[in-house]
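Re: the 289-residue chain
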Amino acid sequence: MPEASTLAIAEKTKISYRVPTLVKWAGGKKQLLSQFDKFFPNKIERYIEPFVGGGAVAFHIIKRFEPKFVLLSDINEELVNAYNTVKYNVPELIAALTVLSKNHSKEFYYKIREIDPKTLSSIEMAARFIYLNKTCFNGLYRVNSQGKFNVPIGSYKSPQILDIKSLLEINKLLKNTIIKVMPFENVLEFAKKGDFIYLDPPYYPVKEGKSFTKYSKNDFSKADQERLAELFNKLDGLGCKVMLSNSDTEFIHDLYVSYTKNVVRARRMINCDSTKRGEINEAVITNYQ
């Protein structure tokens, strides 16, 4: 275990190739990939990501390092179903999204939002999920206490509901991956010495009580953050290379006091006050230098 240290803010550069994403995602990391590049290991043969979200980091890793083993997972069943649908049934998904795209309107949005996804086929569920994501407010995923998606429609003139180029590219990138619904602790069943594991949980709020996302019926709590830190320690003990991103707060720094701490600059994308969507520090924590 390395001694703790704090490094300077990572320099921003440009990625030389296109990195697709399946959905818009609160806290998505596409904007940070050039800063993250400085923290990735030089070689990645096995990659595991238990909070896959929008997939930007995963697709970047697959493109750049071509790992032999990739496990992507999330607790969000609809998100994982969408990825598996792109992997196995992309032509049918494109057809379903074409229909939704042609019928998009405010009335249609709320009609689709009211549908219980459990009553749909896997392809219909994926199409509904992507459609709502591309047309709702800021691409936010939020559910109420009953687990029902409740984000209002966004104010887009021409939302890109159907992105065939990205869907086909993601289909190829997912070809040799495993995509599962599972709690983050379950990575211990798959992790081996030398694996690179990236952890991107729902961030601990900078201000208490400020949380914009729910990935299941329950918030990702302070206790969950502590359980994640325990997982980080166990993966470190197994000999894995682990990288975690989270809010740049005293609580998070205290949880990972023994590890290397770095800082990246990210644009705050979700705030009802547009004047407060400037850049903020985010912490990147690794168990290697």
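The chain has two domains: 5-75+182-286, 79-166.
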